[in-house]
User: Fold tRNA(Met) cytidine acetate ligase from Kurthia sibirica.
Amino acid sequence: MNATGVIVEYNPFHNGHLYHINLTKQKTGADVVIAVMSGHFLQRGEPALVDKWQRATMALQAGVDLVIELPYCFATGHAKDFAFGGVSLLESLGCQTMSFGSEAGSIEGFKSSYSLLNAHNDEVQLNIHEQIKSGISYPQALNNSYKVLSAKYNLDLIDLSQPNNILGYHYVEQIMTHHFAMQPLTIQRITAGYHDDVSKNESIASATGIRKELLQQKQLSAIEQFIPPTSLESLITNDSYSSWETFYPQLRFTILRSSPAELRQYVDLTEGIEFLIYKAAQQCNTFPLFMQKIKSKRYTWTRIQRMLCHIFVGYTKEQRENFTSPRYIRILGMTSIGQQYISIHKKDFKLPIVSRVASFKDSMLEVDIRATDLYMLASGHHIIGKDYKTPPIRLLNK
Assistant:
């Protein structure tokens, strides 16, 4: 069976995602679409709007055949780590193609960009290091270094200031660096940019805009034109949605019950920022005020939010040292076609399949289980052990 993979968050699954899945199938002739999806905490350092099983169900109802969980340590990592985790899982599952959305829309620009940066890696890293010392963020430093090289060698390459281009570059980088067999494919984003607010004149909007509209308006009618009917039906069951604003009391408690020295053990906390985080938690009653106290030119909103995820979940630097690559394939859900693919190809998979959490012991999986428990408590569901109690979703293809 011809398998195509995607790396996703589906927060929530919307019409742009549906467009991407349908066009990917058309371009690849895929028999099965496999999604590696983040769990309860996301790459930009946020709790997911709704839980991972609900988001997996939305995906299966809209054309995905198999949903695999991207472990927390990669799902909340920097773009390069996020890409490596997702691409590695798709490779282990035998995907022939990996498809991603981008602002560029052409895979050749990504390949050329990789070749340029790889060929001049020492020059790039030195330039990045010097710029970071001046106080700018890593993404800005990377893009500036890239522009310098692009002008120097007179090459027309992709714009690495665009968020989906950045992730796309890292997908291609990981595939080419590790000599994976699958081929990258990109689908151009249409209508809405990554950070754009919703437009009532369109049927496609960014996930960022959709979440913002839903959390502000607090009614599904505000977003129904931007999501498939199946996603809308799924969201109707929710009486609340998760965000840092709703999680802040628990986050604040977690910070203040620790000392700054204890906070320092968590992933990404460096340069004494633990003192700033601790002080802001003492002074601020709301999440926006807390973030404004910490945000700076050096510490972007996303970078800080990732730190907060790690504090909240208790993910330490010592743990990260041991989590170098995915160790298992955790199934969240599948259609009958996805189940057929597993039955035919499971002997060829490069990692063990986990369908029952209780039957598989691994410290990487334990972090995911803890993340689920804390997410459920903070979102008001008061459920512990849902990973143990929830079998993979099974959906019959029509």
